[in-house]
Structure to design on (527 residues):
């Protein structure tokens, strides 16, 4: 953390203080200190399909408008997900195959094997358990004294959920958060918290742990349990995945990060947004039936994953620019969700927004977030239970955020709870 | 105008007139028929306008594109009658069509 601590955020250049061709949105500190909004606003207006030549990440296109992002996201023959879906390239000896970073047909095959875990039938089974856990967490919180919402609520709830999806030993569940944070602490996403060798070492520990679970869960036949590992270990199309340890690590990280970092930060982001827009909080108190709509608005507002990266398989013209075969193409969901030409009053948080579901935070096309229903369900239950208990979840200090151009993460969100009168 | 009947999963029927040229998805949304979300707005990119076309109308609603088939691959409760309603333009030929809707789109 030493680099981040000695850095003065006012050193980050203002978005309008440079020629447009010099703009580069890949610095993780822009997001950490919330300077990225102006950068993307300028790009959307002046150069919505923008080329950057960056020392660290090479040549990449930034796609910043909703409709252009949609055009890339839905054209998987031209825009490949391989070999990675984040802006930086993985080291050659540690490229992790995972289904989100695969093209059809292998992507389709692997995704279909694990998707039943988060499909409606299984979610309906899980709903009472999730509600009970949310109630347990909320009832254990101190009233009237300051604490970090991120640790006590956002991380705790999503980690418990993740442990259930993997049927992971519950007492060890903090390891999932540790591995998730390690996986996303990478210079591939503009972060310098952990040395790459240390990151690899920790992810191999994750592998070893999950190999034990894999071996225990083999041999369940045609009707495996509904956790991710049982489904992968018992399907003839994936039961030899351990032959390629990197592919097992890759898919583990995909499912751990996908089910953890995202919802965690939307849980924190919702509290923060309602404090920034007190009239919306008042609206919510008057009419809690707005919660399902608010959940979509929170996910748009937070956009927990800022970008997804593709690679052009052929020359392609987009927005008047010539993308060359082999170029990296980065879709900035965080920008598309604030595109005023697609979303009315995009820079306002409106819990009763019309067409709130029309946001791009889950992506569109065949790689659309597999766990989107689970994410919405967790947030919906959480807010229903919060509104039954607390008059006000008050943010009492500035949040601390993660240095990353990928995970829009809260590290600290100090709050004080006020009980319902 | 062609008359379309949308049937919710609980059996509730909505009989509405839909202007030719609109998609079946737009016909439902514009007439406040519940049960179709259409998160992506009609781009064949989210599979939240899933519906079932039955009773011999399948031949009149055109062929699924590869993209539509791929998106349906990841939807729930998919059958041979499944389509994405944003990909079916309403024509005079579809007068009398019955469109069944799934239990949930998301």
């Amino acid at each position: 953390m030493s680099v981040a601590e000695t850095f003065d955020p006012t050193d980050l250049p203002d978005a309008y203080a440079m020629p447009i061709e010099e703009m580069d949105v890949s610095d993780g500190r822009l997001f950490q200190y919330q300077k990225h909004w102006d950068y993307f606003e300028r790009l959307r207006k002046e150069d919505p399909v923008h080329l950057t030549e960056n020392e660290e990440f090479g040549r990449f296109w930034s796609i910043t408008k909703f409709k252009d992002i949609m055009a890339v996201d839905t054209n998987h023959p031209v825009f490949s997900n391989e070999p990675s879906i984040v802006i930086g390239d993985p080291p050659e000896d540690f490229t992790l195959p995972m289904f989100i970073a695969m093209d059809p047909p292998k992507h389709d095959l692997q995704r279909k094997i694990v998707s039943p875990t988060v499909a409606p039938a299984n979610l309906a089974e899980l709903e009472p358990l999730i509600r009970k856990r949310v109630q347990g967490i909320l009832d254990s919180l101190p009233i009237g004294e300051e604490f970090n919402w991120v640790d006590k609520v956002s991380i705790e709830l999503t980690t418990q959920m993740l442990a259930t999806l993997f049927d992971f030993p519950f007492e060890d569940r903090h390891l999932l958060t540790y591995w998730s944070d390690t996986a996303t602490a990478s210079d591939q996403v503009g972060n310098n918290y952990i040395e790459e060798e240390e990151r690899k070492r920790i992810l191999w520990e994750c592998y070893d742990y999950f190999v034990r679970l894999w071996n225990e869960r083999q041999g369940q036949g045609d009707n495996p349990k509904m956790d991710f590992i049982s489904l992968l270990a018992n399907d003839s199309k994936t039961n030899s995945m351990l032959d390629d340890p990197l592919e097992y690590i890759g898919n583990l990280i995909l499912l751990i990060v996908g089910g953890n970092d995202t919802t965690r930060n939307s849980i924190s982001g919702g509290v923060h947004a309602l404090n920034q827009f007190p009239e919306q909080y008042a609206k919510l108190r008057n009419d809690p039936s707005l919660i399902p709509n608010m959940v979509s608005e929170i996910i748009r507002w937070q956009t927990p994953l800022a970008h997804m990266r593709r690679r052009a398989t052929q020359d392609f013209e987009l927005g008047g620019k010539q993308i060359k075969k082999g170029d990296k193409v980065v879709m900035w969901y965080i920008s598309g969700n604030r595109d005023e030409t697609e979303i009315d009053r995009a820079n306002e948080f409106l819990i009763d927004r019309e067409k709130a579901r029309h946001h791009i935070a889950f992506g569109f096309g065949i790689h659309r977030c597999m766990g989107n229903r689970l994410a919405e369900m967790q947030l919906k239950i959480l807010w229903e239970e919060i509104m039954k208990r607390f008059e006000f979840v008050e943010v009492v200090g500035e949040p601390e955020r993660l240095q990353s151009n990928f995970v829009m993460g809260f590290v600290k969100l100090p709050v004080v709870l006020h009980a319902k009168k | 105008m062609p008359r379309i009947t949308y049937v919710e999963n609980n059996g509730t029927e909505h009989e509405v007139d839909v202007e030719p040229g609109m998609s079946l998805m737009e016909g439902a949304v514009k007439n406040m028929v519940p049960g179709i979300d259409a998160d992506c707005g009609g781009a064949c990119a989210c599979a939240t306008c899933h519906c079932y076309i039955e009773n011999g109308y399948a031949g009149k609603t055109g062929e699924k594109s590869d993209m539509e088939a791929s998106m349906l691959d990841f939807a729930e409760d998919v059958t041979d009658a499944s389509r994405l309603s944003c990909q079916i333009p309403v024509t005079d030929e579809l007068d009398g069509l019955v469109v069944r809707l799934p239990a949930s789109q998301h």
